[in-house]
Amino acid sequence: MTKPAPLWQNIRDTLYSEIAQGAWRAGARLPTEAALAQRFDVNRHTVRRALQSLADEGLVQARRGAGVFVLPAPLRYPIGARTRFRQNLLSAGRSPSRRLLHLARQAASAPEAQALGIARGAPVHIMEAISMADDLPISLARSCFCATRFPDLDTALRATGSVTAALAQMGISDYLRKSTRLTAQTADPVQARHLQISSGDMLILSEAINVDISGLPIEFGRSYFVGSRVELVLESDGPAPFVT
After folding, report:
1. Which of residues 174 and 240 earns the better pLDDT score?
2. Per residue in 30-45, pLDDT tens?
3. Do residues 200 and 88 share a domain?
4. Of the four listed, 135, 154, 157, 240, which is most buried by Cβ atoms within 10 Å?
């Protein structure tokens, strides 16, 4: 005889079906634990386990002091020869925004120097920012640029909030993705706080080098994407040929 599914599983299945059918749309707040416990005639612990199961699947997110909210479907984020944050989000029907965390000039570390083709200790601009889709954090990024080549880039970055727009002010009207390296890791407490997730949640680390049309490196970036919110799609177009 088949054992009946546990109560929390039945609650999870019911809420999952309601979300799938549109009863609870992206951004909507689910009823409180107390309300759900009353609806299903169970204790709050049982409700909490059902909600945690939905959160583990990337369907909902608990926000401290605010409640549990339905998350949008994972964002399809193409990575190809010309990867642009704003264009990717607008193409997906999402509203792009960035929140600047840190912008400073400092000495290049060994990995940064190697990626940019400059001497270790050479001056670089470092920008750290949170990238958001419809005001929901999807990635925590750190970008590095050669300050000798682009001495005023920090001013342009602060004014525009956009890497593409800032580089255009520096005379770089187009740039290409040379390489992308993807690895998986878990979020530490600082990353979790910035990304509004739990410590230990899965992240996708993208390490990328962008180059100008002649093939010279202009940006080395490390972006930590929230695994449950983004689908990284590697496109097969490959980098466009360099103009010599």
Report:
1. 174
2. 999 999 999 999 999 9
3. yes
4. 157
